Amino acid sequence: CEAVKANLREDRTTKVVELYAGSGNITVALAALDVDLVAVESVREACDAARRNLLHRNANARARVIEARAEDYALPAATDIVVLDPPRTGAREFATRCVRSGPKRIVYVSCDPATLGRDLAALESAYEATSVATFEMFPQTSHVETVVVLDRIRGGRSKGRAP
């Protein structure tokens, strides 16, 4: 959570959307910042848990939890940053949609290197990876979490050009 928070501008006017929010583990950390936060999750029980987590931690009153599929959620035009923490299947639909019009920054949290690579390849014409960090969350296993920060490239780059 701290690695994600470190890549957000703490500014009252910063609009952050967290997709695949789950029960709010990252949401609670983000809500500690002075940002306008919307957390999107498709499972009602997880949404309820996220709301309880925010309430019990006296989180930012501007933090909202919305029950919706991340793939279907229309990002508000003023969205500055999207935080993604998708399941192992990744965020293919979101990545494809973001190339056409997306936020200035994406902070992508991944537990699966294969789907992360696929999604980064889909984003490479419009975004540049500016930071990559890995975290061993489950010692003595092959599982690793990766946090990739992607910043929008003005005007994009031609498909097939090296970053």
Write the layout of secondary structure elements.
Elements: H1 2-5, E1 15-19, H2 25-31, E2 36-41, H3 44-56, E3 64-67, E4 81-84, H4 92-100, E5 105-110, H5 113-123, E6 127-135, E7 145-152
Parallel strand pairs: 1-2, 1-4, 2-3, 4-5
Antiparallel strand pairs: 5-7, 6-7
Helix pairs in contact: 4-5
Shape: globular
What is the residue-mean pLDDT, rounded to a whole number? 85
Beta-strand fraction estimate: 25-35%
Q: Give the count of helical stretches.
A: 5
Outline the low-pLDDT stretches: 158-163
Order of helices and strands: HEHEHEEHEHEE
In spatial order, strands of the major sheet run: 3-2-1-4-5-7-6
Radius of gyration: 15 Å
Number of strands: 7
Helical/strand content category: alpha/beta
Helix residue percentage: 25-40%
Main sheet specs = 7 strands, mixed
Termini separation: 28 Å
What does this protein structure show overall?
The chain has 5 helices and 7 strands. By secondary structure, the chain is of the alpha/beta class. A 7-stranded mixed β-sheet has the order 3-2-1-4-5-7-6, with helices on both faces. The radius of gyration is 15 Å and the shape is globular. The two termini are 28 Å apart.
Highlighted features:
single chain; 163 residues; alpha/beta; disordered C terminus
